[in-house]
Amino acid sequence: MNKPSLALIAISLIALSGASASAQPNPDEVAIKVSYNGLDINTASGAKVLLRRIEQAATAVCGGEPANRLDRMKTFRPCTKEVVNRTVSKIDSPALTALLRDRTATAMVQQLAGK
Question: Which residues of the chain have pLDDT under 50?
Answer without folding.
Answer: 1-2, 10-23, 26
